[in-house]
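Late entry, evening session. Most of the bench is empty. Finally got around to the prediction I had been postponing all week. Sequence below, unchanged from the version circulated by S.P.
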Amino acid sequence: MPAYTKMLVAIDLTEEAPQVLDKAKALSEAHGAELILVHVVEPVGYAYGGDIPMDLTELQDQLDKAAHEQLGNYGDQYGVAKANQVVTVGRPESEIHRLAKEQNADLVIVGSHGRKGFQLLLGSTANGVLHGTECDVLAVRIHG
């Protein structure tokens, strides 16, 4: 089996991200692969069902700015070039599918909370990414 050359690492920006990044970094070094860090900001309107009669643009901008800063910090820490740090807005699964295809990634790495039972083995995002991605998907079990 040929080595992976381009790994798309989808992270949320919680304290659990380094567990996924540590594994991704080790894998990329072992394969001599390029890492692309991705964080998907969900549209603010989703969380509120669109029923709120207010302009959420400012809040969305703040979330976007915070995501860029945090992803930038992880990028610096893990030696990932700015050009390979992607913050996008949308549904995580569909954005990850789109970016994996666009970037010609041959491996997508996501974090997964190890709960009990098969449907909980992969969280909803990890599961959504698995179904519909054309390349391999690695779910890194998050401990804690």
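Two things to note before I forget:
The chain has a mean pLDDT of 85.
The first strand starts at residue 6 and ends at 10.
Will write this up properly tomorrow.
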